[in-house]
Amino acid sequence: LHAQCSQRLLSPRMDLCHVPAAREKGWYLALMAPNVKGPNYAWLDPSRLYCHPQGLQDCVADLLQPFQGDPIDMVAGIDAMGFILGAAIAATLRKGFLAIRKAGHLCVQTLAQPYTDYSGREKVMEVRTDAVSPGLRILLVDQWVETGGTMRAAIQLVERLGGVVAADPPPPPCPTGVAAICIEDSEGGRWIWERYKCAHCVPPDLQPRFDRHQ
């Protein structure tokens, strides 16, 4: 996988046809394009992964694997890139999809939650108040969990409305939780891993490189 990553990251074109013979977990991570614009941008761009039909399908399958057999009532995706994976997961599960928005975009009654994102900026997240009923079991999805501030705010919104983002080990009735391409081994990432059932796509041997943004 290391060799695949090195070769694919250097490729200037999107290859939407190539599928490796052995599709080990995380093979599609090599499709992500590295940052060439400097520190004001995220260090990887997963857009090429989403463009690859098999890559996207396998990514969704890997994220759902820990939740096989778990009752999930709704999938919620975080503004904005979490909408892509969240909607794909909701379609796969044949469940509804809830968009958790950045403040100022919803024209209905909302619940707001301030937070600090991965870049240190203070922001506010909102969700409509009529979409989550008490006891609703929700799988929260985002593209990436770096410092954990954004995901933690989404968890707080769901739980303030009475929704369930299950703990790990989950109490009855169970186990929805958190899914992202990568959950970094940061203080915030560990906070989420310790309290909720989680899924991500990074193999253990690559995790230290992702944590160092290499």
Automatic annotation (TrEMBL):
Gene3D superfamilies: 3.40.50.2020. The keyword Glycosyltransferase applies. GO terms for cellular component: cytoplasm. It is an enzyme of class 2 (transferase). It is found in: Cytoplasm. Residues 70-162 form the Phosphoribosyltransferase domain. SUPFAM superfamilies: PRTase-like. It catalyses: AMP + diphosphate = 5-phospho-alpha-D-ribose 1-diphosphate + adenine. One of its GO terms (biological process) is purine ribonucleoside salvage. Pathway: Purine metabolism; AMP biosynthesis via salvage pathway; AMP from adenine: step 1/1. Keywords: Cytoplasm, Glycosyltransferase, Purine salvage, Transferase. Its EC number is 2.4.2.7. One of its GO terms (molecular function) is adenine phosphoribosyltransferase activity. InterPro entries: Adenine_PRTase, PRTase-like, PRTase_dom. Pfam families: Pribosyltran. PANTHER family: ADENINE PHOSPHORIBOSYLTRANSFERASE, PHOSPHORIBOSYLTRANSFERASE DOMAIN-CONTAINING PROTEIN. Belongs to the purine/pyrimidine phosphoribosyltransferase family. Homodimer. This is adenine phosphoribosyltransferase.
